[in-house]
Specification:
The protein is α/β, with parallel strands linked by helices. The protein contains 12 helices and 7 strands. It is globular, with a radius of gyration of 20 Å.
Length: 302
Amino acid sequence: MALEHHQPVMLNESLEFLVAAPAGRYLDGTLGRGGHSRALLERFPEATVVGCDRDEAALRRVAEELPTELAPRLELKQLSFSQLATLGGGFDGLLLDLGLSSEQLSDDERGFSFRFDGPLDMRMDQSAPTTAAKLVNETPEADLANLIYRYGDVRRSRAVARAIVKSRPLRTTFELAEVVRRVVRRSGKIDPATRTFQALRMAVNGEIDELNAILTTSLTLLKPAGRLVLISYHSGEDRLVKRFLRRMSGGCVCPPGTPVCLCEPQEEFKLLTRRPVIAADAEIKANPRARSAKLRAGERLP
Ligand SMILES: C[S@@+](CC[C@H](N)C(=O)[O-])C[C@H]1O[C@@H](n2cnc3c(N)ncnc32)[C@H](O)[C@@H]1O
């Protein structure tokens, strides 16, 4: 297993938006390698953090690597976004750094990346019932095409689905990537298999439903003046976040030209970022993963 060096994305920016109460209680819903949580605890010696992830391996690693002096202020829990409501409320800030960690991506056994040959797994929570292999080998062709189009924006999604169905059973990341490359032409530097892998990963982990669930739950998790900070890495996720924050800060998100507003804007958040915050050039140079990151933040109104 190849491990890549871990660098939390937009660390300074995210903590600036997140921490308005230096002695506050924070929720990190995407603990990952613990980069953001750890820095928060180091910079704010009176703050506490509940760190959650649906990936048990991530929690185990953070528990092993955490300096003992920080441990009493970090509570670890294996929870997915849709389960975070069980934590009640009263948080001064909620951080969500979406997507995968570099550990997950670079672990060939997890099957997230076609850079390594591994089983078609792609589950963030390894106890979840549906693997990528199950989706790829058992989903009817039309549904597979829809899923690849919807989550991956793959224009030749039908051709990809047809090729997958013809090549069944597919067992490994290399096998799947090869099948996709046969029907999707390379455009620029991006591997033709990238978007299909992204689509399958999103479907395996129910990522859109999970994101919608946590956006709604953030209303009950945060106390007044509590901060919501989200970092997303692809346009579909960022669009959801942007629309949520706009509608919850009194803005209309109806399609242009709609005669009467139907989206029911609410005054739940003050928008802290009119435009998404993006990483500085120096960070992108040092950490290419930051290139596609977009940060948006809001403050909970009383
Ligand atoms: C980009 S990483 C977070 C990295 C972290 N901020 C750090 O600095 O180490 C995203 C993490 O969120 C977790 N995750 C993604 N979606 C999740 C969900 N719906 N519920 C719980 N955890 C999730 C993934 O398992 C992964 O470990």
